[in-house]
Amino acid sequence: MSSSETPPFLQPLGFQNSQNSFVQAIFPHEYPLGPAHVLWSSSDLPKFIVLFIPGNPGLLDFYLLFLSELKSRVKDLAILAHSYINHTPELTTVTAEHGLTAQVQAAVEAFDAIKQNYSSAKVILIGHSIGTWVSLEVLKARPNDVYAVHLICPTISHIAKTPNGRRLSWLFQRPLPLFISKLSYLLRPLPAVVISTLFRAWPENQVTVLRRLLRSPTSIFACLSMAHDEMQMIRDLDVALLEQHKHKICIYFAETDDWVGEQRGVVLRSFKADPGSIRIVHGKSGVPHAFCITAMERAGHAANQHNKNFSPNDAIKSLRNLGKPPPNPDIEQPGPRIKSALDIIGDMAFDLVFVCRQDTTHPTLVSIRKNWLTGIAPWVELFLAKFAVADPSTAPGLEFRDAVFHTMPAILTLVAGPRNTSEEILKLRSKSPLLFPLFYKAWVKVLSITHVSWPSWASVVSEMVFIRGGGDDGVLMAEEFVKTMREMHQSGKENIAALCIRHINLLVQAAHSRQLADRDYKGFENAMKTFVSLFHTSTSMSQPFIVNGGITTIVKLLATFVATRTLRRHTEGSEEFSSAIGVFDLALALLQSLLKSQVSASEALDAGVLKAIFKAKRFFLYDSHPASTHRIKSTSSLISLVVKQLDLFLVFPSVLRRFYRVSISLSESGIEDELGWLQPRPQAFLATWEKTKRKAKELRTIFHDFEMACPSMCAHIQCPFRDSVPPPGTRYLRCSSCMNVMYCSHKCGKAGWASHKILCGLFGKALREGRPGPCWQDIHFFREITNQLVIRNYEEVVRKMEMHPSSKQGQTLIVLVNLDDPDQPEFTSPNLLAVVDFKQFCRDSRMKEHDDAIPDVKQYIGRPLRERAVLAVGVFPVSKGGKSRVWPIVDIVHVPEEDDYTEDEYTDEEDDGSEEDYTDEDEDEEGEDSEQWESGEDDGSQKGEHIKEVAS
C-alpha cells in the first residue's frame, strides 16, 4: 500500500494537501461516537506504525510539520494521527459524544483497526499533552499489543493542580463552555489580519488553523467540555501502570511547562528506586509545551531518536570519512562537513540520553568511549574552541552555535560516565587535557548570552568540579576550573565575577516574579555549586566577586527565596523545593565564606541579611521534614555560621553600629518573637543569635562610654585638639585614597599629608585587594575593649597567673584576650582570657605571622610593672587574605582599685600617649557625622607602623 492510498478502515476526504505526504481522511466511529479527522502516511510494508494522539484542541493541522519531520527521519514508518471527535470544525455532529471517556474509546478503536490490518507491524503510541493520558489508557486496554509509548509533555497526574490548571480550570466549569462557544459568532466578521497581528509569533499556516477553530462554536464547546473532564478525571498518577510497562515508555519533558508544573516531580519520584527503568528526556532544545506551534522540527527530532535504526558503528565510520576537523572553520557559514560532524555526534549523544544513561553496556556508549580520541574528541574540541565561544552575525552561524550549545553537555556527560566517579572523569581528563578548560570557557559564553541550554551546562560543570569520591584529584579538578576562570578574568576579556552575579540576579528576578521554570531550579542549584567553588574565600576570585556586589546579590537571593510568594506553589517534598533548598544552603555557605572582613560584614548588614534570616521560617521548619534527611547541615546550623561571622567583626565600630540598629528594629517589629515560637525551634540559630546580641550590647556600652570621654581622633601630630576633646559638631575627614586615617579639618589633613603619604599607597593597595586592616578608629576601640575585658575579669586573671608554672620563676606573664575565633565563648566570660609566658607567646602561630607582635611584647619582658598592672595582648580578627590572620593590640592595662579610676594607667609614656589618641569620628550619639561613619569605617590600613609614627 503506497502512502497515497488509505487503509480500508478510513474514508478519504475530497481535499488533499499536495504540500505534504499525508492523506486527509475520516475514521468513521459508530454511534454514540462520531467521525474523527485523521492524517495517514504509509510506506509499502511498514515495520512500525505510529498512532499519534494530539493535545487539546486536537487539530491535526497544528502537527503537520512535526509529523512530517518524524516521517522523514524514520524509514519503514507509517503514521496515523487521530484527532478528537468534534474538535475539527469541518467534521462536527451534534449527537456525537465528545467527552474524555468517549475520546479514549475512539483511540482504542483506532488502535484495534491498525492491529487488525497491519498485524506484523509494531504499533508505537505517541501522545502530546492530554494525548499522553489517552495513550496510557490505550496501553492499559491493549497491554500486549503496544510496542512502545512516547509521552511528550505528559499531563498524566493532577492536571488541575498545575499552574495552568489552577489559572484556567474555572473557564471549563458549566455553563461557561456553552457561553464562550457562542461568542465565536462575534469573531466571524473579524478580519484575518487582526488575528495574525495578535498571534504574530505563530507561522501563518498555524494562524489559519486557529481562525478555523475560533469560527466553530461546536468545536470550541467540545474542546472546553473535554478540558472540564480532564480536570475531574486526571487525578493520581497510575504508578502501577508505568511500573508494569516501564521498558516501553519514554517521557519527554519540556523545559518550561505550566501544564505539568510540580507533577513532573511526581513522575520522576515514581522511578527513583529504579532510575534506569524508564527513558526520560528533559527539554533538549527549549521546546515548549505547545511545541507544535513553533518548534516542530526540534520536537520531531527528539521524538524519533528511539525509533530510528541507529547504528553507532555506522556513525563512527561516517565521522571518520569526514577526515580531520578544519583548523579555521567558517564561523558565519558552517560548511556541510562541519554540520555533518555535529549531526553525527548529536545523534549518538541524544540516542543515549533518550535510552538510558545508566546502561554502561549500551553499544552507542561503548562505541563513543572506544573511538573518543581518534574520532570524536578532535571534533568536540573544535566545536568548543571555535564555535561555542564565537559571536557569529549570520543566521546560519547563530543556528549552528545553538546546536553546539545543546549537543556538547550531552556528549561530555556520557563520555564521563553515568555515575561521574573520579576514576571516569580523571580518565577522560588524562585523555583530553584541553577538553575541560575549553568546556569551562564555553560555559562562560553560555552564561554571557543566557542561552536556554544553561541548565545543562551548569549540571555538567558542577559534576566535573564536584566529582564524587575525588579526594585530592577532585581538589585538582576544582583548582583547574578556578584557574581557567581566573585567567579569563585577568585577561580582561570577561569580567567573570560580574557575569556570574548578573546570572544570579536574572534567576533571582525570575524567582521573585514566579517566572522561574521548574527545571531551572535544578539548574540554579548546579550553578550555585560552581559559584561556591569559584568564589569561595580560599580562591583569588572571591575579591572580584565582592567588589562587583556579590554579597548584596547573595543576600538578595536569600531574601527572595524566603518570601512566601516565591515558593508558594512548590510543596516540601517536590523536586523543585528540594532544589530551592539546595540553592538556599549554597548561598548561605558562600555568604559565610565571603564574610571575611569588616567591609563584607557591613555590606551584608546593609543589604538586609538579618531580616532575610528571620523571615526564613519555612526553611527552618524544613529541617524537621522527612525530605531533609539527606542534607549535611540544617538551615539552623548554616544560618548560625553566618551569624557567627557577623559576631566576629562586631569589634569594629562600623559593624557594631549596623548590627545594633538592625537588631533593635527586628525586636520592635515582632519578627524576632515570631521565629522563637516555631516548633520545633531552630535551636542552633537562636542560641547563636542570643549570644551575639549579648555581645553587641556589651560592646555598645563600652563604645558609648568611651566615645564620651576620648580626645581628638585627628591623625595630625600637631593638631590643636591633640590632647583635648574637640569642639561639638566636629566633622572628621578620611584620607580618600586609603580610607585609614582621619583629620578634624582640611587644614590638619594638608599638614599631615607629609607624614602619611609614605604608607598611604600600601594601605590603599590592601583596601583594593579586599584585605583592609583596622583603621585609626578601630585600633583605639580594640585597645579599649582589651582594657575593659582585663579590668572586668581581673580576679580570674590573677588566679590564672598564680596557677601558671612560670609565675613562681618571676617571669612576666601575658594575658591574651582572644577575640579572633567565631566559636569564642561568651563575651563576658573569663574564658576569653588566657595567661601565657613569653615562650608560649612566641610559639603562637598567630603571633609569628604578624611582624610587630613579638617585638612589641618583648620590650616589656623583664621590666617591672606597677601594682595591678597587666601586660595584655588583645587578639582581634583581621581581613582574610593578608599576611596575618589577626591584629594584636599590645597594651599595659592598669586595673584601678574599686571606686578609684585614674587615667594614669601605664608605666610607659608611649603607651599613655597611644591611649589618648582614641575617639569616635561621630560626635553626635546617633551619627551626626553620618557621611564619615558610613563612607570610611568599613576600610582601613594593614600595618601598625603608621599608627605609631603618628602617635609619636
TrEMBL record:
<keyword id="KW-0378">Hydrolase</keyword>
<feature type="compositionally biased region" description="Basic and acidic residues">
    <location>
        <begin position="940"/>
        <end position="952"/>
    </location>
</feature>
<keyword id="KW-0863">Zinc-finger</keyword>
<dbReference type="GO" id="GO:0019915">
    <property type="term" value="P:lipid storage"/>
</dbReference>
<feature type="region of interest" description="Disordered">
    <location>
        <begin position="896"/>
        <end position="952"/>
    </location>
</feature>
<dbReference type="Pfam" id="PF01753">
    <property type="entry name" value="zf-MYND"/>
</dbReference>
<dbReference type="InterPro" id="IPR029058">
    <property type="entry name" value="AB_hydrolase_fold"/>
</dbReference>
<dbReference type="GO" id="GO:0016298">
    <property type="term" value="F:lipase activity"/>
</dbReference>
<dbReference type="InterPro" id="IPR002893">
    <property type="entry name" value="Znf_MYND"/>
</dbReference>
<comment type="similarity">
    <text>Belongs to the AB hydrolase superfamily. LDAH family.</text>
</comment>
<dbReference type="InterPro" id="IPR016024">
    <property type="entry name" value="ARM-type_fold"/>
</dbReference>
<keyword id="KW-0479">Metal-binding</keyword>
<feature type="domain" description="MYND-type">
    <location>
        <begin position="716"/>
        <end position="760"/>
    </location>
</feature>
<feature type="compositionally biased region" description="Acidic residues">
    <location>
        <begin position="897"/>
        <end position="939"/>
    </location>
</feature>
<dbReference type="InterPro" id="IPR019363">
    <property type="entry name" value="LDAH"/>
</dbReference>
<dbReference type="GO" id="GO:0005811">
    <property type="term" value="C:lipid droplet"/>
</dbReference>
<keyword id="KW-0862">Zinc</keyword>
<dbReference type="Pfam" id="PF10230">
    <property type="entry name" value="LIDHydrolase"/>
</dbReference>
<protein>
    <recommendedName>
        <fullName>MYND-type domain-containing protein</fullName>
    </recommendedName>
</protein>
<keyword id="KW-0551">Lipid droplet</keyword>
<dbReference type="GO" id="GO:0008270">
    <property type="term" value="F:zinc ion binding"/>
</dbReference>
